[in-house]
Amino acid sequence: MKFVPVGCALFALVAATPALAQAPSDDDLAALVRAQAAEIASLKARLDKLEAREAPAAAPVLAAAAPSSPPAAPASPGGRLPRAVAVTTPYAPQIVPPGPAERDIGRAQEANTAGVTTEWGAGLPVFHSADGNFTFKPRGRILADVSSTFGSRYDDRNLTITGMRALRMGVEGGVGTHFFYQFETDFSENEVDIVTAFIGWRDRIAPGLDYDVRAGHLFNDRAFEGSTGSDSTPFLERGTVSTAIIPQRGFYGIGIMPRLFWKTGHASLTVTGDRVDGNQTTSDSRTVLARAHWNPVKTDRGVLHLGLWGFDEHLSDAATTLTRNTVIGGRFNGALRVSSGTLTGGTGTTGYGAELGGYVGPLWIMAEAGQRHARLDNDRPDFVSKAWSVSGGWFVTGDLPPYNPRLGSFGQPTVLSPIFDGGPGAIELTARYESLDYTDILTGGQGWAATIGANWYLNSFTRIQLNAIHWNTDNRAGAFVGSDNGQTVSTRIGVTF
């Protein structure tokens, strides 16, 4: 095959002999040379293509060594390659591998041939396989806070502090229409902490009636703000009902949570042990928690929300300390707490609460109240904690509150005019009053806080928050005994992917 261009050239010269015998002009000779050169170049290009196609069969070692070739895809359980990856190599083997731009184009063409699609949602891509069977999405959360406290009669409480409320990375995805999973790790406060980590199954029982079951490290479904993620709360910190009327193990536990959803509400039941830890020398505590919410009124511009929840916790022999030090004026001032004083000998806790609120257009309001009974050994009476709060907000820009009617909590807002599209974003003004009472025991304190705030949502996943808090504490134990009050100003920049 390598002699084809030469043969063609000789044939062309023979064919041109009669013309030469007639003594052609210089112009005729120049035109003939140009035509022959063009034909030879065309034939050589065709020959190069044929040689490139035949190279894998003739040189298998070279083909295996080509760095641009993707690895073989694993077989599916049925022995067939998954549809999304059963593609031929887009490059012919080469001694010199393609440059970065060529590789990127080739891989994009391969993904396009496989039918893999990508959509951009809240800042990060969501990947879908061609047959729709597989989905995958990275997750992230960055919440950076600055807090300054002043006015306290104790100098050690007047602090200015910076902190990362959340610094999370994770993934979520699904297989088919039923199986799903999620995993997140938090790196705030310079520590690695496993937060949400579960697998789940979802299905439909009947039209308008769905369920899912999740198993793993689960976030509590408890109270309105307690069920709202830290990246979605309208204030920098959850209210006292969510932070004080809580199982001793905290917001997370390893276990199972079935949930039922209908058109106007949902219900959940959770059974868990302790949160993720490295202690395998004693039995875990056991917690059973249930919550339900109902929207008796639900329109495109308004919702009425009713909610009830409760939990019962049996403490293990290694978790008998019930001491509480609860935030009242912001998360990052460790000296600003309402304290129960040292309390040991706990055997279990039982808590319950109620929620009432909703929204009409850009206005929302929510009231919550709850109690927790901590059971003590040696026939001592229960330690009873009480908390309540009333909060509300107004979207000046006319956006709707980010209420999630499926879960009965707040989520990420849908901003009508993001600043990245030339709009003002969404601007929300907020206010809250909250109260906490630990005075059921002699060493227990009490406190309250009034907060006004402003939230500026640049788009649906980026926000700037400002809270001004006037607080009051009256502790009976600890370093800051007696009545005290002051102010805390806090701000946050948050991004949720």
Automatic annotation (TrEMBL):
UniProt-listed Gene3D superfamilies: Porin
Keyword Signal: yes
Keywords: Signal
Superkingdom: Bacteria
InterPro entries per the UniProt record, alphabetical: Porin_dom_sf, Porin_O/P
Signal peptide start-end: 1-21
Stated name of the protein: Phosphate-selective porin OprO/OprP
